[in-house]
Write a structure and sequence with these properties.
- By secondary structure, the protein is of the alpha+beta class.
- It has two domains: 54 residues, no CATH class; 48 residues.
- The strands form two sheets. Strands 2-1-5 form a three-stranded antiparallel β-sheet.
- The model has no long low-confidence stretch (mean pLDDT 88).
- The protein binds zinc ion.
- Zinc ion binds next to loops.
């Protein structure tokens, strides 16, 4: 999951990669706060995990899309199977959106 937050010093968007798919797992993985230097201005910042927002993985989406196009072209002569390979990236897109929305909906209780 790719998470984003805004730097307190320069207000630019920073990204963090985590394994967790929800905030509870993230709390186990990283703790209550993420301590990181800003990618742009280098200021050391502490961000509470509730302030992190998930974003759909665009890179994975592009890969899925191009793979879908290639596969669709490849299996086009086999008929109906082509519609499945065509739908796969679309399904993947909605799955990514849903994962991000689910993540953003749930906040961990603040101590
Ligand atoms: Zn900054």
């Amino acid at each position: 999951m790719r998470l984003s937050y805004y730097c307190k010093s320069c207000s630019r968007k920073n990204f963090v990669r985590v394994k967790s798919n929800n905030r509870f797992d993230l709390q186990m993985e990283k703790g209550d706060e993420i301590k990181r230097n800003c990618d742009l201005c280098g200021t050391h910042g502490i961000t509470h995990i509730n302030r992190l927002d998930a974003e759909p993985n665009r890179m994975a989406l592009i890969i899925a899309l191009s793979l879908g196009v290639v596969l669709t072209g490849f299996v086009f002569y086999f008929g109906w199977i082509a519609s499945i390979t065509f739908l796969l990236p679309i399904w993947f897109y909605f799955d990514q959106q849903k994962r991000a929305t689910d993540f953003n909906k749930i906040k961990v209780p603040r101590k």
